[in-house]
Hints:
27% of the residues lie in helices and 24% in strands. The protein has 317 residues and is of the alpha+beta class. Strands 1, 6, 7, 9, 10 and 13 form a six-stranded antiparallel beta sheet that branches. Strand 2 and strand 3 (22-28) form a beta hairpin. Helix 1 packs across helix 2 and helix 3 (132-141) runs antiparallel to helix 4 (152-167). The longest helix has 17 residues, at 42-58.
Amino acid sequence: MASRPGHAGRINEDFVGATTGLAVLLDGAGIPNTEAICVHGVAWYASTLGSTMLSCWARREAVDLRAVLARAIEEVAGRHRNTCDIADPSSPQATVAMVAVQDQTLHYLALADAFVVLGTRSTDPVVVTDGREVQVRRESLAPLNGLTTGTPEYRRMRAIVIEELRGRRNQASGYWIAKDDPAAAAEAVTGTVPLDEVDSFALLSDGASRVVDPYGLLDWRAFMQVLHSTGPRALLRRLRQYEVGRTDGPPLDDASVTFAEFRRPPRGGPAVPRQPAERTCAASSRRRDAGAVLALRGASGLPAPLCWSAPIAAVTP
Ligand SMILES: [Mn+2]
Ligand SMILES: [Zn+2]
């Protein structure tokens, strides 16, 4: 795993972590000048929520990913409810990606614009994200299109649309993100894949997924190949090399990648040809615009013995 701040000397508000069987990645939403709302700040929120998720899992207080997230949101809310205005729409919040491995099954969760990418044995990678945050943001900010930045009209309209966006946060008509309300966990995109159909997985913050979209430096298959051959730190270095000095893209963002490969012990006897995995799109009818909700259902057969091997490199400060 690797993580880099968007700007040297500024605190990294992403968090990556793992314990036996669970990897988590969080991207703290950087709403500036909110010290009056929360004395702790965004980096504290993302790292405390992430480490509480790992702790809940390790203590086996919850085994389902949504339950782990809900319990951790509740626990962290309790830690600053008395000192901070946690119900304010701009109190610290975070996008979340999780992968757990249990009983020969890989479980994944994505909330807001964090990514889970599953490297499969025979098809293109399966990319899971929750598209609602991006869509609601685009809709809410649309009135700014065509206005000149810095003009009084721009500032007036910006105040209006920001208020609109705040009002759609953690609401049925908007998008969901980890904040003070454990109900957000029930809104996350989740799914399972038989472990023997997955080679590897990656968790990404939106600062890292830019390599594919919008920059188009790699497609998802090449992205996973680069992680396989050179690892997360080299990938983030390449991202920054591309971004430095550019003026036409979005502002630099914290960028984080966790990558794990499943190493299977060699089996005796000749290799058995495998049926290709069948990909099914299992979009929930309950949730509108829930982004990509993909699940793999695939070739039957006995799962191979597996060890979950997450090559953990030092986190780059
Ligand atoms: Mn980000
Ligand atoms: Zn606080």
